[in-house]
Amino acid sequence: MNILLLGSGGREHAFAWKISKSKLCKKLFVAPGNAGTQNIAENIYLNINDFNEIKDFVIKNNIELVVVGPEEPLVRGIVDFFNNDSELTNVKIFGPSKKGAQLEGSKNFSKDFMFRNKIPCGKSKTFNKETIDEAFKFLETMKAPYVLKADGLAAGKGVIISENIEEAKKNLNNMLLNEQFGEASKNVLIEEFLEGIEVSVFVISDGKDYIVLPEAKDYKRIGENDTGLNTGGMGAVSPVNFATKQFLQLVEESIIKPTVDGLNNENIDFKGFIFAGLMNVQGKPYVIEYNVRMGDPETQVVIPRIKNDFVDIILKCINNRIKEIELEIENKFATTVILASNGYPEKYSKGDIISNLEEKNESIIFHAGTKLNDNKVVTNGGRVIACTGLGNDLNSALNNSYNLAKSISWNNKYYRKDIGKDLLKK
Ligand code: AMP
Ligand code: GLY
Questions:
Q1: Residue 426 reports pLDDT greater than 70
Q2: pLDDT by residue (tens digit) across 370-381?
Q3: 116 falls within a domain
Q4: Nearest CA-CA partner of 332 in 415, 395, 426
Q5: Beta bridge partners of 320
Q6: Mean pLDDT lowest among 13-17, 181-185, 217-221, 268-272
């Protein structure tokens, strides 16, 4: 079948890499894609939030399956748009409904969902500018550090953690009264701080049943030893050694099953990924947030470990048959190190020519912010390349990632040297 994949990051290159290996895929288009997807699929320029433009392309090119990478089109309701259009009845789309996507699109919605379904998470309350005095009072009842979260999508920047109450009040003022995150911080959650280590768990659900994909750990900060500004993610590893069988069983019983049962009981259409960002608090998992898409760069370590035909998984999910899938996982470690443009996540340059883009033994290059310019691959974003390595143990996977990370070069390359190192010590 002809397949259209929406998105342009490392996650989408990893999806495209896997989809293009499927025997069910005749032709793959990626919109807008990057220099990496251009090698294995056809890139086309479409605005991924302009559903009419996508519809025209889908009809003209006999697309039978649309796979959505990032959250924004999902939160804006692309799945409802496709499923309710009589000219698109033969087209399948993989992702949650607009209501389901609220699990990521509104932290207030997702918190209420967790409270209703008794899913372990930090206690919290939501406030707006009319209730700011109550918010200040509520802050007084909490302990430091104080967690403030913009309700809406804020490009991964909407969480502010303050060490003392004065700072928390100032930040709350900025969010609610000065609209620091625009519309997204019209409502702000004040949440209990959860102390522990983070791990991400990924599920594919058809709204009734689910399969659990390999877990991963992401390294979010720009600087080594988890210092400096938050980024989209500077590296990832899978599997995660502290996520023991017993812990993952607890995750399934206390989080995944109640989440999917909640969607089912509340009649929320959901055929897509559930990405649960978890905190392991002394062996007990708590949800920090849900996303309704895969993680980036977590995809670049999860997808290479899945042996099954990915298009078959997606189609079974859309057809309410996800429970027929028997997931086969490569018994290997996967790691990825992100090569970023110097300056990211703040100001950085674009257009630097990238050289030595050659894969080595047990390694895969996934492009993120790249494009072709006069047949040369140039930088085109903050996170540029994901260097994925595979190995029989964490150390050899990391060696394979770092061999790539060292050899690929351009003028303003930056990467963290400590990805996965904390887990080697455990
Ligand atoms: P989010 O955008 O919800 O993933 O939050 C960004 C980061 O803030 C998370 O990856 C955590 O490191 C941190 N964070 C969010 N909520 C909490 C919490 N309740 N307790 C501790 N850390 C948190
Ligand atoms: N790497 C974190 C995310 O994709 O949200």
A1: no
A2: 999 999 999 999
A3: no
A4: 395
A5: none
A6: 181-185
Q: What is the mean pLDDT of residues 267-280?
A: 97
pTM, to two decimals: 0.96
d(CA 294, CA 202): 7
d(CA 68, CA 3) in angstroms, rounded, equals: 11
Confidence of residue 182 (pLDDT cuts 50, 70, 90): confident
Residues constituting the chain: 426
Instruction: Report if residue 100 sits inside a domain.
Output: no
Say whether both 83 and 53 belong to one domain. Answer: yes
φ, ψ of residue 261 to 5 degrees: the values are -60, -40
CATH number at residue 11: 3.40.50.20
291 shares its domain with 237: yes
175 contacts 168 by C-beta, under 8 angstroms: no
152 Cβ closer than 6 Å to some ligand 1 atom = no
296 lines ligand 2 (CB under 6 A): yes
| Cβ 288 under 6 angstroms from ligand 1 | yes
Which of 139, 174, 191 marks a domain boundary?
191
Both tokens of residue 254?
Answer: 């206390």
- What separation in Å is there between the alpha carbon of 76 and the centre of ligand 2? 19
Amino acid in position 251: V
The domain tally of the chain equals 3
Whether residues 226 and 356 share a domain: the answer is: yes
Are 90 and 150 part of one and the same domain?
A: no
CB-facing half-sphere around the CA of 306: CA atoms within 13 A: 30
